[in-house]
Write a structure and sequence with these properties.
Rossmann fold; seven-stranded mixed beta sheet; 30% strand; binds adenosine-5'-diphosphate; binds magnesium ion
């Protein structure tokens, strides 16, 4: 399929501050991120680095404290809640980290997927195909509590992916999966992205990292680096800031550096003053 490389996800200066009993937490601080259609992107970073918070804002489930999230050209931040809900139903699938948060206890596996399929204008055949692709064909008539954790997680993914939403967002989709199940989810991600669907996953899983187009590393709520085709790149945000890794930063205890650049040779140097 011919891919049109248009930006589907655009985050600009995205900020999310949580107020809690112990004070304020800046879960996401100034994230600029553009993802084109058909890309598969993994967001990695230590626990608490802001992965889930970022994904929830991109998925329209949470509102940023400041900044913009644009999906397929529409700024989610400017939409009313009902308009955002409509847009989410049409374009976005969000697979929550806990499989049971995605599933209705009283519906069989097939019915869970069919329900979403119909909302997206496809039918039972598409639902069966999706279950089959994720190795769940023989679980179609089971209720969620008759499925293993891994099967529930694959079912949650099937439900999100059926009927080709423009963007699939999945929070740690392989966390409870063995190797064979993980391979099935990764095969599904590859199929979806070759069909032009944009896939964004938060993960700690090295098996996932090896099979996505791009890896975005978060540190303390900011993008520390982006890895494409095995090359790790620093990111320059819209204000011109670059984040240094902690092991480099510790060599600059005074937090001052002399910087020089050669625009012609496209080089840039940071030195101790
Ligand atoms: P990750 O998914 O990378 O583990 P999160 O986005 O869940 O990170 O969390 C980032 C930071 O924001 C953490 O310090 C977390 O405690 C805090 N946080 C997340 N959600 C909330 C919330 N609803 N209320 C208060 N703090 C939150
Ligand atoms: Mg998380």
């Amino acid at each position: 399929m011919e891919r049109d490389r248009r930006p589907v996800i655009e985050c600009v200066s995205l900020l999310r501050v949580f107020e809690s009993a112990t004070g304020r937490v800046q879960a996401v601080r100034g994230v600029d991120l553009t993802i084109e259609s058909g890309r598969s992107v993994a967001v990695v970073g230590p626990s608490g680095s802001g992965k889930s918070s970022l994904l929830r804002m991109i998925g329209g489930l949470d509102e940023p404290t400041a900044g913009d999230v644009t999906i397929d050209g529409v700024n989610l931040v400017r939409l009313s809640r009902p308009a955002r809900r409509k847009m989410r139903a049409r374009l976005l699938a969000h697979v929550h980290q806990r499989p049971t948060d995605n599933l209705l206890g009283h519906l069989t596996a097939l019915d869970q997927v069919v329900r979403v399929a119909q909302r997206r204008g496809v039918g039972i055949d598409a639902a069966r195909e999706m279950l089959d692709g994720l190795g769940l064909a023989d679980r179609a008539d089971h209720l969620p509590d008759q499925l293993s954790g891994g099967e529930q997680q694959r079912l949650a993914f099937a439900r999100g992916a059926v009927g080709a939403p423009a963007v699939i967002i999945a929070d740690e989709p392989t966390a409870e999966l063995d190797t064979a199940s993980t391979d099935r989810v990764l095969d599904a991600i590859e199929r979806l992205s070759s069909d032009g669907i944009t896939v964004l996953v938060a993960t700690h899983d090295h098996r996932v990292l090896a099979r996505v187009d791009e890896v975005v590393t978060l540190r303390d709520g900011s993008i520390a680096s982006v890895t494409e085709s095995g090359t790790e790149l620093a990111v320059i945000d819209h204000a011109g800031r670059i984040q240094l890794p902690p092991d480099v930063r510790e060599h600059f205890p005074d937090r001052r550096a002399r910087i020089s650049w050669d625009v012609g040779r496209r080089t840039f140097t940071v030195e101790e003053p």
